[in-house]
Amino acid sequence: MPAPPVITAYVALGANLGDARATVLQAMDALATMPGTVLTRRSSLYRTAPVDSSGPDYINAVVELSTQLGAIELLHALQRLEQAAGRERPYPNAPRTLDLDLLSYDKLSMETDELVLPHPRIHERAFVLVPLAEIAPTKVPAEQLAAVAGQTINRLN
């Protein structure tokens, strides 16, 4: 049987509870070791204020993956990493130990109860667009970056 095709996917990472910086870096390492998956690019880390949420500032990043996992299979792998990091969902947009959002999966467009691709709020969030533009500038039109220019985001060393 032939191997599944290799797909390019983008994942946003964020955390604002505990040692958020260490958690995001550990999650990047975990993404790099998922079966059938290679982490091909990682953005810098960014500090942002919560958007539609509360609590401390977030540490955010975006990674590019080359994966043989299907879209739902990848989503489930991301959710397992969130759970391993102690993610709880007591209410919508609660502060979190780790948040992993599948932003896009090649050119796939889908809308199910479980997964919407591309992610429906990418264009509203500087904490996604700025790190995504860092690693995949052709994925982020200038007008989208301009639309979120008023949102505070600071690149970390």
Care to describe what's here?
- The chain has 157 residues and is α+β, with helices and mostly antiparallel strands.
- The protein has one domain: Alpha-Beta Plaits (2-Layer Sandwich), CATH 3.30.70.
- The protein is 27% helix and 27% strand.
- The protein is built from four helices and eight strands.
- The chain has helices at residues 20-32, 71-84, 126-135, 142-147, and strands at residues 7-15, 37-42, 46-48, 58-67, 99-105, 110-111, 116-117, 153-155.
- The strands form two sheets. Strands 1, 2, 3, 4, 5 and 8 form a six-stranded antiparallel beta sheet that branches.
- The longest helix has 14 residues, at 71-84.
- The chain is globular.
- It starts with 6 loop residues before the first strand and ends with a strand.
- The mean pLDDT is 92.
List the helices and strands and how they pair.
Elements: E1 7-15, H1 20-32, E2 37-42, E3 46-48, E4 58-67, H2 71-84, E5 99-105, E6 110-111, E7 116-117, H3 126-135, H4 142-147, E8 153-155
Antiparallel strand pairs: 1-4, 1-5, 2-4, 3-4, 3-8, 6-7
